[in-house]
């Protein structure tokens, strides 16, 4: 327990002296010295210079050895896979992007090959090889059904519905593997580094090409019996076609029916064209129009009210291309439209995660898994 406490401190606070580690853990100087000697011998900690500029002998600094473990994180979308490789401290060493056209359709084990190519590209950028990876986390639309092992709610990802998907990917990568819903990972990033850091009960609503939600209650993600908790893109709402047929109903995330057909990124552009803006090509361009922004806000508020009435969260975070493009003007309009639609009135914020929140969440999850394994010094 003392070893893990010291390692967690070095991860969160950076290099520390033996004295400071003792102060933060409550350990005596001899015990702290023994602990650091043990962790150094195990290759988990190394020295990194001295503290200078103060009275007395220079104190030696200790840090987590970045070579102790490496992890890979992947974010999957309809157009390809983005991969990142980081060391145990969380420093990203290499990234790569592979399009779905990198491996021809019909190629045996195409999905596994695409994943391997993305990981290998990131490893090459980092100057590493697969043998140096300790774990991998993949963020993908949909969710693995714990009963069948199949990826559900992601009909627009051909090749990802194999019953042996996880086994195939584990075999090709040669590391422990976690496959997690992409919106759940965005919520992990939001809770760790974003606008939901101080909340144990919140809902992250992802509005992009596809629409989904991550529900966090008591600080824990709610997944549901089949992994489908938060699949609000299929939620029936007034004005939206019904999404009958479940995860067999559409080849694209914006097809089918339900809430997704009201607020998904392609449908926002379609709405602007219906309002006469025939030249609009982007979500930002569509939401620059006040009439489009007002209608999208009304639709978002209606969908949020259905979720909030059931979950009663402290906070709702809006993430994805549509909220980012609409910005504060859209958030304020949604908040205004929400008035009176549900009894609970959670705070409404827009995500402030820089970069790809799905990739960030996958990386944080991979690091947590690796640290639990590598830092187990018992």
Automatic annotation (TrEMBL):
CDD domains per record: ASKHA_ATPase_ROK (cd23763), HTH_ARSR (cd00090)
SUPFAM superfamilies referenced in this protein's UniProt entry, alphabetically: Actin-like ATPase domain (SSF53067), Winged helix' DNA-binding domain (SSF46785)
Gene3D superfamilies xref list: 3.30.420.40, Winged helix-like DNA-binding domain superfamily/Winged helix DNA-binding domain
InterPro entries assigned to the protein according to its UniProt record, in alphabetical order: ArsR-like_HTH (IPR011991), ATPase_NBD (IPR043129), HTH_MarR-typ (IPR000835), ROK (IPR000600), WH-like_DNA-bd_sf (IPR036388), WH_DNA-bd_sf (IPR036390)
Domain HTH marR-type stretches: 6-50
Pfam families: MarR_2 (PF12802), ROK (PF00480)
Family: Belongs to the ROK (NagC/XylR) family.
Protein name per the record: HTH marR-type domain-containing protein
Annotated organism of origin: Streptomyces albospinus
Native organism taxonomy: Bacteria, Bacillati, Actinomycetota, Actinomycetes, Kitasatosporales
């Amino acid at each position: 327990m003392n070893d893990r406490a010291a390692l967690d401190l070095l991860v969160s606070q950076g290099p520390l002296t033996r004295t400071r580690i003792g102060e933060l853990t409550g350990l005596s100087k001899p015990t702290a010295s023994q602990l650091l000697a043990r962790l150094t011998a195990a290759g988990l900690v190394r020295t990194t210079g001295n503290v200078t500029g103060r009275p007395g002998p220079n104190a030696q600094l200790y840090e987590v050895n970045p070579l102790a473990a490496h992890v890979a994180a992947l974010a999957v979308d309809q157009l390809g896979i983005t991969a990142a490789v980081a060391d145990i401290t969380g420093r990203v060493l290499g990234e790569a992007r592979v399009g779905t056209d990198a491996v021809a359709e019909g190629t045996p084990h195409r999905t596994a090959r695409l994943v391997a190519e993305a990981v290998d590209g990131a490893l090459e950028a980092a100057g590493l090889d697969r043998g140096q990876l300790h774990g991998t986390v993949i963020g993908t639309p949909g969710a693995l059904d714990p009963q069948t092992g199949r990826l559900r709610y992601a009909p627009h990802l051909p090749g990802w519905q194999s019953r042996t998907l996880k086994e195939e990917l584990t075999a090709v990568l040669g590391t422990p593997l976690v496959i997690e819903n992409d919106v759940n990972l965005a919520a992990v990033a939001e809770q760790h580094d974003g606008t939901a850091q101080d909340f144990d009960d919140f809902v992250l609503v992802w509005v992009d090409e596809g629409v989904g939600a991550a529900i966090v209650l008591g600080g824990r993600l709610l997944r549901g019996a089949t992994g489908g908790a938060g699949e609000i893109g299929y939620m029936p709402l007034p004005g939206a076609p019904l999404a009958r047929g479940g995860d067999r109903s559409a080849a694209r995330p914006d097809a089918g029916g339900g809430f997704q057909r009201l607020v998904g990124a392609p449908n926002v552009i379609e709405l602007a064209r219906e309002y006469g803006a025939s030249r609009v090509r982007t979500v930002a361009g569509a939401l620059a129009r006040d009439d489009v922004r007002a209608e999208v806000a009304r639709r978002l508020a209606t969908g949020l009210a259905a979720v909030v009435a059931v979950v009663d969260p402290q906070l709702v975070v809006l993430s994805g291309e549509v909220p980012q493009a609409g910005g504060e003007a859209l958030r304020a309009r949604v908040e205004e439209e929400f008035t009176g639609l549900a009894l609970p009135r959670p705070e409404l914020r827009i995500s402030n995660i820089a970069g790809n929140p799905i990739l960030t969440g996958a990386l944080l999850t991979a690091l947590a898994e690796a640290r639990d394994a590598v830092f187990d010094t018992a």
